[in-house]
Specification:
Layout: H1 8-25, H2 30-44, H3 47-60, H4 65-77, H5 81-94, H6 99-111, H7 115-126, H8 143-151, H9 167-171, H10 177-188
Length: about 190
Amino acid sequence: MGVNYVPPREALPRAREAALKALELDDTLAEAYISLAGIQYFYDWDWPGCRKNIERGLELNPNSPDAHVIYAYYLDLMERHDGSLAEIKRAQELDPLALVIKVDIGIRHYIARRYDQAIEVILSGSRGPSGGKAMAPCCRHNWRGFKHHRRVGFCQGWTSPPCTPSSAQRTRPFSGWKARIRNAKAGFQ
């Protein structure tokens, strides 16, 4: 038995085609707008397009947890951390059993540099049936934050963050991404 995996550079263009085809057939499908927004955010870095499609998806289906999660990511990128946290909490209200959303609440606090709240969320998740392993991503987002967590005793005994990116991942060039974020923020005003 193996794990079926398609690299993003192959899967996401096909997913974009499928979402666009779905919208061609029925332009009231919230899920297609939400999928397209996710692709634009995570793969294309087309943040204005992501915003447009996620807002349309939310307009068509305000009860989609996935839409609120993607919108939370987008708002964090625009440094609208309070709005991001409100969106991710709305996603949790809509899907209270999704552990990934609880992890995202911790990550939203972490990105906003609210380390104490992030740790509180992580610790509350570590008391659940899966233990703290599912909450580990909150400790690995960057080394500076990890050092903070280790200081307060959450990550005691870890010598490095779990799932530390490989050197190839750390050095992969992301040319122009800061300028693209600046331009997207300017358009958000």
